[in-house]
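User: Write out your own:

AI:
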Amino acid sequence: MDSVTQAALGATVAGAIAGKRCNAKVLLAGAALGTLPDLDVVLDYGDAVSNTIKHRGFSHSLLLLPPFALLISWLYCRFRPDAFWTFMRVFLLTVSVLLTHTLLDAMTTYGTQLLWPFAGYYELRNIFIIDPLYTLPLLIAIGAALIFKQRGGVWCQSVVLLSTAYLVWGYGAQQIVANRVEDNLLSQNLPNQHVLITPTPFNTLLWRVVVMDGEHYWEGLASLLDDEQHIDFVSRPLQSWPLSDKPETLRGLTAFSHNFLNYREENNALIVSDLRLGMANNLAFEFIYAQRGSDGEWQLLAAPLRHTSERSLDQLGALWMRMKGDQSINADLEVMDLSLNR
């Protein structure tokens, strides 16, 4: 999730655990702890792909965060002894904030290495990385806790339950769409072995569907507010890696994306795209791996580069209409180039 949401979640969780002891210092400490795991973005792993796929690694590991919380708790109690904030209370607050951070990240589409150093990317894909309906209640709870100090903990506890219920709703909505997708794939004679279902920007009502199918893939949108259950899929060409050798970073990108990858040539550059993050022809994670030389042969770059394209908010109106069930728009996915992921 975005940094604002993670800081707000950390503050709210800390306030909920503090209860009657909730105050500005507790909320600030929770916000700081909630931001801490994402500081791994300052690390440079040597190239654009490695920086992408190694984010949410060791700093998000369920195996490392509890020992780290123990260390923080020991240091705090060592230098700031307090009758109420015993070691166990400090540890409970610290580990709760850190673990809720990484678990929330695992509910987005990006992928989180929950069991680092063991290989594997885990994602539930039941919430977009920026969702105002999730974040705003957290911010309201923080504001209320600062204003109504005597009941600050109650506000935080209530909103933690509310935000958790919203995540459960997102998962439920995803399963509703998944059943609809399964029926459509069967009726339209499309494969169902490699399917992605993920929310579109800022909501849990409109969902993007990607279906991999040999030499092409299919992309469609499904809203919970649709009157018709039919999903219109747009077919897109799916290319393969044209070189005999696969760089280590490409193998890592394949694992990171669960092989939702596409390849294309553009301006003599070989571009590899992660199909999960973005929409249509405007994907969030694309990388240049090789350049075509004057002899017509591909020459691998020493390190892959990030390929950037312009992002536009012009189609948010169309996205809003499609979310409300207007299937006449049906995203002409060639036009709906929305990619608001970080």
Summary: Residues 188-323 form one domain. The mean pLDDT is 92. Residues 316 and 338 are 8 Å apart (CA to CA).
